[in-house]
Design a protein that fits this description.
Elements lengths: L1 E6 H10 L14 H14 L6 E7 L6 H4 L11 H4 L2 H10 L3 E5 L4 H12 L5 E5 L14 E5 L4 E3 L1 H8 L6 H8 L14 H11 L19 H10 L1 H11 L19 E2 H11 L11 E2 L1
Parallel strand pairs: 1-2, 1-4, 2-3, 4-5, 7-8
Antiparallel strand pairs: 5-6
Helix pairs in contact: 1-2, 2-5, 8-9, 8-11
Length: 290
């Protein structure tokens, strides 16, 4: 048995920004993202191995990390049409019978990381449905993997090594050194993917990297400059690593049994289709609960 964990924030953004015409509800609200999310989730639920499913959303595009670093990502500058669709998307997923974790203090990634850790011993495999590099830190062998639905690529632990040049446990350190523009922190000056992966492949965590480049047991170009920059920006690197480290203690109430998909809620889903003008998917659910 597999547990699938859906990064619904990513799926909503993918549907909204993925091209194609806008789509309005009868009352004029933009619902393109919600429509795409419903279609992709219905397709997911038709897969025979998708029996247990949980989804997480960023109900608020802020988290405790904004209190730690002023430059951390917010919803500022985002199209208001996509922000307005988060509560609609959450309603749609629940109408489909999917458990939704709405994150406010934490982020959706934290909820997915928590669920992956909590339930990994109860199932044969946990599949995190996202291409988000932050979640690569949750991968464990081939028991906890990521799946990029757009490219249809599974990333297990070997895949993390192939993609980043480091193991899952080093991903926060890697991001702390190279930065993450999506999350809004810059990393350490001069450090790039090659230098970070070379050092972390040997030392695993940035606090184990010797401060003197002369003590490094691997060779990288510009070692003296890299070592000096790391010494000068060590506090920032530690902060960035902390920002990139996913929390695994989100208070999720559900048990594994609660995540078993029983079917769409007929009345709620049909009412939602009427409200949003989704006549094309009214009869798409293949299993219903009253």
């Amino acid at each position: 048995m597999r547990l699938h964990l859906l990064d619904a924030t990513y799926e909503l953004f993918r549907a909204f920004f993925g091209g194609g015409p806008d789509r309005q509800a009868p009352d004029g609200r933009e619902v393109k993202g919600v429509a795409g999310l419903i279609e992709s989730t219905l397709s997911l639920l038709r897969q025979s191995d998708v029996t247990h499913l949980g989804a997480a959303t960023d109900q608020v595009i802020r988290s405790f990390r904004n209190d730690l670093y002023d430059g951390y990502k917010t919803g500022e500058g985002l199209d208001p049409d996509i922000l307005a669709q988060f509560p609609l998307a959450e309603r749609a997923l629940e109408a489909l019978g999917v458990v939704v974790w709405r994150m406010e203090e934490f982020e959706a990634d934290d909820a997915l990381a928590t669920a992956a850790l909590r339930f990994s011993d109860e199932v044969e495999q946990v599949v995190i449905l996202t291409p988000d590099k932050d979640l690569a830190q949750c991968v464990v062998g081939d028991r906890v993997v990521m799946f990029d639905r757009r490219r249809e690529i599974t990333i297990d632990e070997d895949g993390v090594w192939e993609k980043f040049g480091v193991g899952p446990e080093s991903i926060p350190d890697y991001l702390g050194l190279v930065g993450d523009t999506a999350d809004g922190f810059p990393g350490v000056p001069s450090w790039g993917a090659k230098s970070a992966s070379t050092l972390l492949a040997r030392y695993v965590h940035l606090d184990r990297i010797p401060p003197d480049a002369g003590d490094w047991e691997v060779k990288v170009r510009g070692a003296e400059r890299l070592a000096e920059n790391l010494r000068q920006h060590r506090k920032e690197a530690d902060l960035y690593r902390h920002l990139a480290t996913l929390r695994r203690d989100v208070p999720l109430r559900e048990s594994l049994d609660d995540l078993e998909w029983q079917g769409a809620h007929r009345d709620a889903f049909l009412a939602l289709c009427d409200e949003f003008g989704f006549n094309d998917v009214r009869n798409r659910p293949h299993k219903w609960v009253v």
